[in-house]
Amino acid sequence: MIRISIFAIFLSAITGCEKPATDLYSDKESLSGNYMNEPVPGLVPQRFCPSFFSFEHHTPPIFSPDGTEVYWKLMDTQYPMILGMVLKNGKWSKPFDASFNLKGNNDAPYFSPDGLKLFFVSSNGTSGDNYDENIFSVDKDGAGWSRATRLPDIINNHPLHWEVTVTSGLDIVFQNSADHDIWYSECNEGNYQVPVKLPPSVNGVTTMEGSPYISPDGSYLLFDRRTGSGDSDLFMSVLDQDGNWGEALNLGSQVNSTGHEFYPYVTYDGKYLFFLRMTGSGCYPYWVDASVVTEFLPGRNSLRMAFGDF
Hints:
Layout: H1 2-11, H2 21-24, E1 46-47, E2 62-63, E3 69-72, E4 83-88, E5 91-92, E6 96-97, E7 106-111, E8 117-122, E9 134-141, E10 144-145, E11 149-150, H3 153-156, E12 164-166, E13 172-176, E14 181-185, E15 187-188, E16 191-192, E17 196-197, E18 207-214, E19 220-227, E20 233-238, E21 249-250, E22 260-266, E23 272-279, E24 282-289, H4 291-294, H5 300-307
Antiparallel strand pairs: 1-24, 2-3, 3-4, 4-5, 4-6, 7-8, 8-9, 9-10, 9-11, 12-13, 13-14, 14-17, 15-16, 18-19, 19-20, 20-21, 22-23, 23-24
């Protein structure tokens, strides 16, 4: 399973060997504009900003809802930190280690839909046979971020949470590495409820699921699925009017290739689907017009519910 191999890579990470991000990107040209002024993709996935994001990635670039921040994680174990850039006066800063990184391996950044919180996972406080990744969150604090707070045990008692995603109400969805399934916890008045495993329509009996994304209104899920020794593909499940998750739909050859597709998310403006594609050439971020996802929704009303008019 692709996710197991990626986890194994990070189990061997040694934070003492980390290199500063400024060295890694020192020869890169400066970037500017929304989405780095990259040509807008159509219905065929394209490498995102390949001249800059030329190193293998463990997450795609995760843009903030207002488009002025971006965070990502590299595959290279010598870089256990989440990297970031900020957009000011139309220019992107040089990459930096995110201020909220903790000692250990840090990964899977994800903004709340209002941009006021950011979730991520870290191995902080764990090592060796007890290695695990716990979910942390930070809050907007002026122009920066607060100190990281670990989510309660009701969530973190589940092992290895890569990746993490939340709705507008902060309901949380995560991958459980013990059963290779996707779990959900409702946030009720700021308190997370006992997580439940999503039904077989999402978590197939003979398949492995992971890297979930949930839409801001909770109306649909994107995730990767793998059967046996095959490649992982991106799938989608839509919540019906009775609150039941529909049978998972393969996003098709328009998105999926003969390689591994995983770690999907739709940008907060509803325009683009980002994901990772791993082939024999490496693991890199791709993007495509979000209509490859929204065509599976019941109608444009669902699109408005998820993202608003745009």
